[in-house]
Structures are given as structure tokens and as C-alpha cells.
Design a protein that fits this description.
2 domains; Pro_iminopeptidase; hydrolase; aminopeptidase; EC 3.4.11.5
Length: 341
């Protein structure tokens, strides 16, 4: 890894959420700020990861795992993390965002992404960190924590996705209906509604792939209440859709029920689940199943909130959950868990 620190002095404010939280902007997020360090990490298989560190270099380490799969991190996502309290590490996963190669599928699977989290942790000299992820990021956070529970101090999960075939096929079936790739009369009886998407989006023929990418991404926009995109998909959007097909066609490289079964290995960790109860992209059923398997985790069901993690209701709930879980982590470190449990 090579990296250069930049942009700003170390904060001298207290790190505790109850003692020195940063001012929140009008949109409910923390103020925009540049990373204080950026790195390129060679993780093998031809992949170079882009890694950035934001906030307080001496703060509580926090790993943020973006959604998708294939989405990459955005500057606005930095604003979920209290810059006085957290040393937030944002990683563009393999093939995503500013990592290279864009859209690379070789050596790109869930176990590799889990191993990458450990590579980043070791490279940055972090002993344990709070892990936060939404949507696909919630799946990856669970997979990582279950594989390496000693590296994780706590979890904040938003918009739960467990990677089950039921979730994937339900979404693909709805998208296929919307795009008229499946006849409306028998869409419910198609054994593999993902197949028409895979064959088109992974096609080497642009005239076949690009319309399917546009339809696939527009379906997500529709579910989130956004307008369709007028312009054709660009290279970043094509890469995102191809990575999604690669993961979804392989059941996210997970065994059936793996993440729910694995809760037993992490139930001792401070954790919070934040779920929009009107989420149409990652419907609340998966979150309800995780909650049932993990009753020790704090639950925040947000009425009338959808999927967008940066919309005010979900952003504010996530920020609050991060503060509470961080309080518990710091209390455990100081032997005061019983005072705030």
C-alpha cells in the first residue's frame, strides 16, 4: 500500500458521542470533508483497491462497506460518520469505483472481499473496528464479521440483504415484469427469473447488453422513487450491472442460510439493525429474519422510509445507531458495558 496523509489537523475534541459530536448540516449529514489519506492496495488477482481514510486519525476505527454489489463509495457517504469521533475507512470493493480494473470479475467473489477487509485492516494497523454496511454492504459486513469476529468491535447494518435465492429471484422477477422480459401471465412460475438478465447483461454484444443494463438499473430507480435515466448506461453503470449479475448468479458465493446460521459466532458483538419499513429494494422480510436470529441486536424499523441510505430518515437513524454502538464499544473497552446496556 502507498498512501499520503493530507487535509487537516488532528481533532482535539473528545471522541465520545455524548461528549463531543460534530455539528450536523441542514440535510442531516455531517459536513463534507476531504479524506486525510488515500491509498492503493494490491490485493492480488490483478486487483488494486482504492482506500480512503476520513475524519479523526486518532478516532475509533470504522470500516464502511458500500452496496451493490458493484456500486463503489461516494463522497456523500463520508458524511454519515462523525469526523470528530471516527477514523472512517471507505473501500471501493474489487471492480468498483476507483479500484482497478473497473468491472473486473476475475477473482471477484465474497470470500475474496472478506479477505480484502482483513488486508486493509492489517495495512492500516487497525486492531479491531466498527463495521458499517447497507444493502449489499450489510451482507458483506455479516460475512466478514462471521469469518473474523476477533477483528470486529461492533456492527451497524442498514437495509438488510442476506443473498438468499428468494430475495434475488423476487427482485429479478419484478424487474423482468417491468422490462417485459417475462410474460406477465406466467412470470410467477419461471424457475429462474434471473437467467434472462444474466444472458443479456453479461453478453459481449453491446446492442444486447446495454438495453438490459438500462432496464435493470431503471427498475431500482423506480423502486426508490427516482426518475428513469435518459442517457445510455456509462462504463461505471455497465460495470456495476455486470458485477451484480456475477454475484447474483452464484448465490452471492454463500451457502443457503449461511449468514443467519453464522449469527451464533457474532451475537456477543454490539450491533444495530436499521431498516426502512417501506424498502422495496431490500424488503423488510430479510431484516425481520435477521432480527429473529439475533435478538441481542438493537432494532430500528423506520416507518415510511425506503432504501436510500442517505435520505434523511435513514441517514439520521444510521448516525444515531453508530453513536450508540460506538458508546457500547468504548464502554466495553473501559469496563463500563453494564452502565449503558
Amino acid at each position: 500500500m502507498d498512501g499520503t496523509r493530507r487535509a487537516g489537523e488532528k481533532s482535539v475534541q473528545p471522541l465520545g458521542g455524548k461528549r463531543g459530536a460534530a455539528v450536523v448540516a441542514d440535510d442531516g449529514l455531517f459536513p463534507a470533508a476531504a479524506p486525510f489519506a488515500e491509498h492503493r492496495l494490491d490485493v492480488g488477482d490483478g486487483h488494486l483497491l482504492h482506500v480512503e481514510e476520513c475524519g479523526n486519525p486518532d478516532g475509533l476505527p470504522l470500516l464502511f462497506l458500500h452496496g451493490g454489489p458493484g456500486s463503489g463509495c461516494s463522497p456523500r457517504q463520508r458524511r454519515l460518520f462523525d469526523p470528530r469521533r471516527f477514523r472512517a475507512v471507505l473501500v471501493d470493493q474489487r471492480g468498483c469505483g476507483r479500484s482497478a480494473p473497473l468491472g473486473g470479475l476475475a477473482g471477484n467473489d465474497t470470500p475474496a472481499l472478506v479477505a480484502d477487509c482483513e488486508r486493509v485492516r492489517a495495512a492500516l494497523g487497525v486492531e479491531r473496528w466498527l463495521v458499517c454496511g447497507g444493502s449489499w454492504g450489510s451482507l458483506l459486513a455479516l460475512a466478514y464479521a462471521q469469518a473474523h469476529p476477533d477483528a470486529v468491535a461492533g456492527l451497524v447494518l442498514r437495509g438488510i440483504f442476506l443473498g438468499s435465492r428468494e430475495e434475488v429471484h423476487g427482485y429479478a422477477r419484478g424487474a423482468a415484469r417491468a422490462a417485459r422480459l417475462l410474460p406477465a401471465s406466467n412470470a410467477d412460475f419461471v424457475a429462474d427469473p434471473l437467467a434472462p438478465w444474466v444472458s443479456r447483461i453479461l453478453s459481449s454484444d453491446p446492442s444486447r447488453a446495454l438495453p438490459a443494463v438500462a432496464a435493470w438499473l431503471d427498475y431500482e430507480r423506480r423502486l426508490m422513487g427516482d426518475a428513469p435515466q435518459a442517457a445510455p448506461p456509462d462504463a461505471v453503470q455497465l460495470a456495476k450491472a455486470r458485477i451484480q449479475m456475477h454475484y447474483l448468479m452464484h448465490d452471492c458465493f454463500l451457502a443457503p442460510g449461511q449468514l443467519l446460521d453464522g449469527v451464533r459466532t457474532i451475537r456477543q458483538l454490539p450491533a444495530a439493525i436499521v431498516q426502512g419499513l417501506a424498502d422495496l429494494v431490500c424488503p423488510p422480510l430479510a431484516a425481520a429474519r435477521l432480527r429473529a436470529a439475533w435478538p441481542e441486536a438493537e432494532w430500528s424499523g423506520i416507518a415510511h422510509a425506503g432504501h436510500g441510505g442517505l435520505t434523511p430518515p435513514l441517514a439520521q437513524a444510521t448516525i444515531a445507531a453508530l453513536a450508540r454502538v460506538a458508546d457500547r464499544i468504548e464502554a466495553r473497552a473501559g469496563g463500563r458495558e453494564c452502565e449503558i446496556a
